Write a sequence for this structure.
């Protein structure tokens, strides 16, 4: 049967850039300590750069050891009053912060996209609403802590140090701050080197919400600053470190804290398996595969970067996936139609290129979508690797970019074995029409989160965290309270 094309018109998207004239960005941001923006002790300011254009956006103060010492001292003296507030009063502050995030959502989304390179569609529809949802969720928990840690009397830990990466800057800040504050702790947050801006806007929001001075400090800086916060300065140190970032740095932090009375949770890297069974709705699965690996340019700890496809549908799924990848719109992150934005930094681009070159050198077959990439900025075309062996670096190491490695399997047992054959254990996806099979496979997987017939779905009520080298501790839901509390009796 021949099928006549319904129209000869080729539809193209018109440019749909988001406006930036509503932004109220300052040229320079100080450190946020004791409820106010202040000069860094060493006077160091570093420009934060738009990775899509390589142009500086604003100058940001980088903190040094003296600033860390001061922030700890201030947070320590604010802690008793904050912890002693009636629970429902603490809840009101979190609720206000959530509302203010909603009120400033458009501005926050644009700044997140400018500073980090992610498509506006994602910062507008995912990052910012979820950040607000986290504050709302933990506002609800603040006066119910005894139900969160069942039938036990609990108390806050004191001062917590929180270190976050660059892939979801505001959302990671919300994941950290909301439960810590709800539990009555004071917090010092270190945003990532390349994406400090939305955390600094969150500092403004804390001021607008009239959060008591000293309850939250925001100290931008690099890894050296993170290490200083972990080790403490002179005699003063924090009571807990909550870290989200790479496994290598997580390991360093664990070593630095060994033998010390500082609590620790680590949310680290991943190489998550997305498993497609032959009985799955394949078109739906392809959408899930695309969302699993190309969402946020693959800069996602739980990205479905190892795609396991049942052999009987391997060719069909790859053909559908490749066709779908050709429709992805790569380019200006501020354009509302963009699917894949800029890579976050030159350094991250280099890391992706190195691993992709290793994939080719080891004999896997590479296909990258042909698309015209902007002249300036950091870009990487969506890429698919087939003929991948489980021992290849692209099948074992986290690429943290828009690159998916395809492996095949014949039986359910082989799928489980291959999925678990990883030093990581953060997340997994299962695509099948059979509910019983999904439960059976999910319970055999060593992964903190398992999605069925969906991928990369986040919800503040659900616990998130890893096994093995993906870290320990959980964030989200009632499980996210426990790491910020000690049991009194
Ligand atoms: P990274 O480990 O290089 O940096 C993370 C943060 O730690 C940054 O703020 C950085 O300045 C700081 N840091 C660097 N060296 C430090 C040190 N020695 N001591 C203390 N702090 C230090 O990671 P990244 O490249 O920014 O982020 C990507 C990584 O984060 C990926 O591996 C990704 O999987 C992981 N990640 C995990 C989750 C999760 O929930 N499991 C979420 C997002 C990202």
């Amino acid at each position: 049967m021949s099928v006549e094309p319904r129209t000869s018109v080729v539809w193209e998207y018109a440019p749909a850039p988001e406006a930036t004239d509503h932004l109220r960005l300052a040229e320079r941001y100080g450190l946020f300590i004791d409820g106010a923006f202040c000069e860094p002790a060493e006077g160091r300011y570093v420009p934060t750069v738009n990775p899509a254009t390589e142009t500086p956006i604003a100058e940001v103060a980088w903190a040094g050891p003296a600033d860390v010492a001061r922030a700890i001292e201030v947070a320590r003296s604010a802690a008793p009053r904050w912890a002693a507030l009636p629970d429902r009063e603490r809840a009101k502050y979190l609720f206000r912060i959530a509302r203010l995030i909603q009120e400033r959502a458009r501005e926050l989304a644009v700044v997140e996209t400018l500073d980090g390179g992610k498509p506006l569609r994602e910062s507008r529809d995912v990052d910012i609403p979820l950040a607000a949802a986290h504050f709302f969720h933990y506002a609800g928990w603040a006066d119910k802590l005894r139900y969160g840690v069942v039938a036990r009397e609990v108390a806050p830990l004191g001062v917590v140090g929180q270190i976050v990466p660059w892939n979801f800057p505001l959302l990671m800040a919300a994941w950290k701050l909301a439960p810590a504050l709800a539990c009555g702790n004071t917090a010092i947050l270190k945003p990532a080197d390349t994406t400090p801006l939305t955390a600094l806007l969150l500092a403004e929001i804390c001021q607008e919400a009239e959060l008591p001075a000293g309850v939250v400090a925001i100290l931008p800086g690099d890894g050296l600053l993170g290490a200083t916060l972990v080790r403490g300065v002179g005699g003063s140190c924090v009571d807990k470190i909550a870290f989200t970032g790479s496994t290598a740095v997580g390991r360093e932090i664990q070593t630095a804290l060994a033998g010390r009375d500082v609590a620790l949770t680590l949310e680290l890297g991943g190489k998550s398996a997305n498993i497609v069974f032959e009985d799955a709705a394949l078109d739906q699965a392809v959408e899930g595969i695309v969302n699993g690996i190309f969402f946020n340019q693959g800069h996602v700890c739980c990205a479905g970067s190892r795609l396991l496809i049942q052999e009987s549908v391997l060719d069909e799924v790859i053909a559908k996936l490749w066709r779908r990848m050709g429709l992805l719109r790569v380019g200006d992150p501020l354009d509302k139609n963009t699917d894949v934005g800029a890579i976050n930094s030159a350094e991250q681009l280099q890391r992706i290129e190195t691993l992709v070159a290793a994939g080719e050198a080891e004999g896997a077959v590479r296909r990258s979508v042909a698309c015209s990439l902007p002249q300036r900025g950091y870009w990487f075309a969506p890429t698919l690797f087939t003929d991948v062996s489980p021992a290849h670096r692209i099948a074992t190491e986290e690429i943290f970019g828009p690159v998916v490695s395809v492996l095949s399997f014949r039986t359910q047992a082989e799928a489980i074995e291959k999925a678990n054959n990883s030093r990581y254990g953060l997340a997994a996806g299962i695509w099948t029409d059979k509910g019983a099979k999904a439960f059976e496979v999910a319970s055999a997987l060593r992964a903190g989160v398992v999605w069925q017939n969906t991928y990369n779905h986040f919800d503040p009520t659900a616990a998130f965290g890893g096994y093995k080298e993906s870290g320990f501790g959980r964030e989200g839901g009632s499980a996210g309270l426990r790491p910020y509390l000690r049991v009194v009796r």
Summary: The two ends are 75 Å apart (CA to CA).
